[in-house]
Prior knowledge:
- 53% of the residues lie in helices and 21% in strands.
- Helix 1 runs antiparallel to helix 4 (160-210), helix 11 (436-446) packs across helix 13 (473-489) and helix 13 (473-489) packs antiparallel against helix 15.
- It has helices at 6-56, 65-79, 110-118, 160-210, 225-260, 279-285, 296-299, 303-314, 353-390, 393-426, 436-446, 448-453, 473-489, 535-541, 547-557, and strands at 82-86, 92-95, 120-127, 132-142, 149-158, 264-268, 274-277, 319-325, 328-336, 345-351, 431-435, 457-462, 468-472, 495-503, 506-513, 561-567, 571-579.
- It has 4 domains: 1-211, 2-Layer Sandwich (Beta-Lactamase), CATH 3.30.450.20; 261-351, Beta-Lactamase; 352-427, Helix Hairpins, CATH 1.10.287; 429-580, 2-Layer Sandwich (Heat Shock Protein 90), CATH 3.30.565.
- It has a 5-stranded antiparallel sheet.
- It is an alpha+beta fold.
- It is built from 15 helices and 17 strands.
Amino acid sequence: MPRWGIMWKHFFYYLLIILLIVPSLLFFTSREIENYFFKTIEDNLQHQTELLSEIFKKVLPSEKIEKIDALAKRIGKTIDTRITIIAMDGQVLGDSEKDPRKMENHLSRPEVEQALEEGRGKSIRYSTTLKEEMFYFAFLVKEEGKSSGIGIVRVSLSLSQIKAFIGNVNSKIIYLALILTAFVLLLSFFSAKRITKPIKEIVFTTKKIAKGNFKSRISVESKDEIGELSFALNQMASELQRLFTALSVERGKLQKILQTMVEGVVVLDSQKRIIISNRSFKKICGFSSSIIGKPYWEVLRNVDVEELIERAFKGEDSKTSEIHHQDKIFLVNATLLSKIKEKELLIVFHNITEIKQLGKVKADFVANVSHELRTPLTAIKGFVETLEEDANKEQKHFLEIIKKHTDRLINLVSDLLLLSKIEERGKKLEVENVDLQGILEDILKIFRSKLKKKNLKLKLIISQRPLLVKADSFLIEQLFINLIDNAIKYTREGEIRVEIISQNQKVKIKVSDTGIGIPEEHINRIFERFYVVDKARSRQLGGTGLGLSIVKHIVLLHNGEISVESKLGKGTTFIVLLPV
Length: 580
């Protein structure tokens, strides 16, 4: 039990209340009793002096001192009260207990002075004559029908008996208060114990529940708030048991899923120690024993992985990187599970070795086939042109069809070879300072005849000259060729507008036309390979469906962005953002 548990706090509060109330009650009760007794004595002495004044006005001031003194002694003995008769000049004329001739002048006594001024007076003081504390009450005796005084009657009473009586009463009150205090403290002790007993049981059972014993229940059956608390805690334990069981089942499922995943999965804590891993990750690292609790660099030594983890812990977004490890290629994704003080990082390793190999085989195949097709297609085109010289009208018609499709195949092969070259070049860009204005002026010479043939105008707008950008000049040239060629193909009349603007450490390239536009439902797919909006028009114009795919590929290789704005029948604008 804690040193200052609820029971002892409860008991201490009761004790504090009693210690505050009982002494205060005793003090005020004693004061009230004392005031009551003194008021009663004062009233009695006042009545006595008034009665005595009626008796002594008959002998004052004419009778001798002996007669007055004898009368005072006789009456004082009868009523058991000290009586003193005092003349107006302060001389003692009679006293029920002492010889008046031996007594000093009483004119300076407080009660006498007050009686002479107000008709009556009182005082509580120590009597030098009787050697004890006395209560004095004096009354001015007046002649019948006159306002002038003829003497003073004073009565006194010893306070020793009164104080003894009051002390006796106070003792009994204190004795009773002590009994009541002991009873109340005993009652508070049992009350506190009765309250804390079920609380102790609640605490004991709650600790068991906190340790995982969800079957524990509280047996308190009282109808008060503690009973309601017990019922609520029992309900909470039942719900926790249900949730924990469900959580255990789900955790088991997740563990099975995690262990059967082909992808390597590992979770690091904020100290970069491994807290969760699966078999695939251990296989990647070459471990068969447990790696939980180990720093990741003891398990997987790879500079690229280390850089990815550092970047992921610093940022909030997911980080993805392509990493080579032990002759294999992995696409590694790192995601922060929490962004609070104690961060945890989820890392997933996707083995893309086969995909990369298939991609390389596919690219090599396309490049080789395209290269091999280029020679026979060129030969076919040359023979067709030779046959056209001696062919009749009908034969020329068929030869024209063969020539047209041959040109389309040659364009397709050229685009495939270009795409293959771009992908190969993308592995290592030949970055240099590229003058965009110079490249555009050279490209415009290529399209001069096409523009003239379709009676189109081309406007070139550059915000500053020279405008340099760090890029691969060959790829940037192919980007402009494809965008401008695309604009010329799909524009019947109007103009082509090329605008280059420098803004916020980026270059914005806008290629606009006044052509047929792109339907809204096709805009999201126009950058896919071999995707054409209008197949009949594309075949008619010699389109291959690879131009825009090549453009996007070039933009991504330069860490740029590309978007398109188009309205059907009004034209299209391609917007490219490249970092300076």
